[in-house]
């Protein structure tokens, strides 16, 4: 189950592969360290318009205070205001001078300690958002106490109002605002990171650790059912992952048990075949002597007995040679199907005097491009399964007991069907019908007959399946002819 980026060398056991040591900073720590800078980035993105808005608001406050002072100064008799009062008014609004424009005339309402030159002009009447951002940062990056002139809308009949003020107090206020924003952003970042960490830790990190622990434990002992994860009742992706992992672990454990069983069975079969081959060789010698007996009945059955013993010896030899459950490649050629079907009937013991009726409905002259021995094994397995199913339910069956073999050709495809009038295939076994050790429900059965038949038919490039909606069980075999090159056909016709 567990996979790493390191692959073992061909001569190195998988258990000796060096795995990277787990780091102390886990998924939770990475999540926490990632959340804080992300919140700070969001705070910076919000700070830019915030500082610009703060700067514009402070300038508008100065203009509003200047408008109030202008009303007071303009209301004085003959416009004469004592210098001491003018200084107090200007000091209250943090200004050095206040002026208004009426028509074509600009009027200075009050002044005190006017600078020699104005360093910057700021016009609030048509300021854009971009100008507010650039102007605010420009003021924060400057040094010293420069004089600025602020132009804004005026009240009454005046066209606009002007106020001359120092830049330093406004810059200091912007610094204080920025410091407060940074402090608040840090507090929000830490709180948000903590809350996000706790939420994601319980929602995702802990389940992921549980999945990881299950993967590691299952990798250490994949044949133990105690290492299979118990899925929770979550309906999200984590719950789906837990359920899929549990199903996969169960399937793998079952597969490993089956592989172990197959390995033990293979060793046992190899031992049995070794001794069985010797016994069959002795039986073959006796059958050869039996073939010389002049009795007509012996002469009739002796060749078939010899042929059966030869098949059994060859099969035992192939099993010992391969040492695994893999069939040899089929030796395909065009063969008539009727002799094979007749031999299957005789081998299965379904003669004319048998209790099970035999029906063969095969097209005249039908030939199949197949290995005769392997096709014989396939049909024999299907016929024996059908006969055993009929015999095991003979007492409960009402009506004739019958096995039927049909054969036909559709273009370059030969189709054979083996059917019976038995109870059919149980629904619970159909899903694993052609898997080893899965389908046998009879005492003493191995569950290998259909698996062997399916493997042999697939080696021919064909297909075998259960036909639905029939009385009893009907298995359909489809074997396509091998493609033949046009040049080969022409050469054969030329030789003919």
| Uncertain runs | 1-18
User: What is the N-to-C succession of helices and strands?
Assistant: HHEEEHEEHHHEHEEHEEHEEH
Report the end-to-end length measured between terminal Cα atoms.
Answer: 60 Å
Helix content: 40-55%
What's the main sheet like? 5 strands, mixed
* Spatial ordering of strands, largest sheet: 2-1-5-4-3
- Structural category is alpha+beta
Q: Which outline best applies?
A: rod-shaped
Radius of gyration: 49 Å
Number of helices: 10
Strand content: 5-15%
For the secondary structure, the number of strands is 12
Which short descriptors sum up this protein?
alpha+beta, single chain, 10 helices, 5-stranded mixed β-sheet, 52% helix, disordered N terminus
Explain how this protein is built.
By secondary structure, this protein is of the alpha+beta class. It contains 10 helices and 12 strands. It has helices at 27-74, 83-92, 129-141, 168-220, 237-290, 296-322, 337-347, 372-392, 449-459, 486-495, and strands spanning 97-102, 105-111, 120-123, 147-153, 160-166, 333-336, 357-362, 367-370, 402-410, 413-420, 463-466, 474-480. The strands form 3 sheets. The chain has a 5-stranded mixed sheet. Strand 9 (402-410) and strand 10 form a beta hairpin. Helix 8 packs antiparallel against helix 9 (449-459). Mean pLDDT is 78; it is low at 1-18.
